[in-house]
Amino acid sequence: MPETMRAVVLDAPGPVESLTIRELPVPVPRPGWVLIRVKAFGLNRSELHTRIGLAEGVTFPRVLGIEATGVVAACPGGEFAEGTKVVAMMGGMGRTFDGGYAEYTCVPATQVIAFTSDLDWSVLGAVPEMLQTANGALTIGLDARPGQSILVRGGTSSVGMAVAVLAKQRGMTVFSTTRTEGKTAALKDLGVDHVLVDDGAVAAQVRAILPEGVHTALELVGTPTLPDTLAATRVHGVVCMAGMLSNEWIVKDFYPIGYLPRGVRLSGYGGDAADLPPEVLQGFLDSVAAGEVVVPIDRVYRFDEIVRAHTDMESGHTKGKLVVTT
């Protein structure tokens, strides 16, 4: 085991150039923690919020990254054998302790899930947080059922595309939005039934196809589009807010009776590793290996391209997951 590692460090919120690659000591795990040799990690909007100063409860300097994929390098508590392939996510990663933007990361064993797969690390690195959020939003936030309809607001985000894949596996009718006409083909390739170009009045487009509205809707853009998403949902339907692509997540002067359409339910989802059962992760990876589903990856970067990767994420022009390999 080396004594030092490369890591992406943020000393304080700032522009993309604030992300610097440095040599740091390899963390030493204590009982109950797992040292992971990181093979790949996905980028998340949460890390952008941390970088630009919108995240709360973050201490600096900090190695960012709320997820990582790799192999167990050490586990003094014996929860995982050395060499086991694992993913890790959430639980304070990249916020209250150093996260996955490094060649090694040390995380609580409760945040780690083992798997077996021969898929490329660039593919595996895209999965953990994206799948956890998509699966949790569908099962916990929406309680989605086979045969129902779903509107995904923010459909070309990585989570939005993963939700479309999982929803189609459940036999749901999927409506998905994009602000860019050029991204419609990417959604159709996932099997989306109705691709809607988001002009701010998506509810009217939905109801032109389903006059009663959709059974479920996942809000990934944030509070600016939430009222219109609610308006696209039928009586007794459920809207789950699980993302903030707009960087806005507060509803000011919230008056429920005036804000919520009659009979439409609003929930929220912000999950953890516990919301991704190992059998769900393994089943998804097996389906990818069998060619039954695809992992929506937009681009893969080298470790030293982290500034470019964050620049692309912030631009909003990407579609699907951005992944960095070490």
Protein architecture, described:
Helices cover 25% and strands 28% of the residues. By secondary structure, it is of the alpha/beta class. It has 2 domains: 162 residues, Medium-chain alcohol dehydrogenases, catalytic domain (Quinone Oxidoreductase, Chain A, domain 1, Alpha-Beta Complex), CATH 3.90.180.10; 127 residues, Rossmann fold, CATH 3.40.50. Strand 1 and strand 2 form a beta hairpin. Helix 3 crosses helix 4. The two termini are 16 Å apart.
Report the sheet-strand fraction. 25-35%
Structural domain count: 2
Q: Uncertain spans, ≥5 residues at pLDDT below 50?
A: none
Number of helices: 10
How would you sum up the major sheet?
7 strands, mixed
Shape: globular
The protein's oligomeric status is: single chain
Distance between the termini: 16 Å
User: Level of helix content?
Assistant: 25-40%
Instruction: Please count the beta strands (DSSP E, at least 2 residues each).
Output: 16
Radius of gyration: 20 Å
CATH topology of the largest domain: the name is: Quinone Oxidoreductase, Chain A, domain 1
Please state the structural category.
Answer: alpha/beta
Q: From the coordinates shown, what is the CATH architecture of the largest domain?
A: Alpha-Beta Complex
Write down the CATH class of the largest domain: Alpha Beta
Q: Give the name of the CATH superfamily of the largest domain.
A: Medium-chain alcohol dehydrogenases, catalytic domain
Order of helices and strands: EEEHEEEEEHHEHEHEHEHEHEHEHE
The whole-number mean of residue pLDDT values reads 95
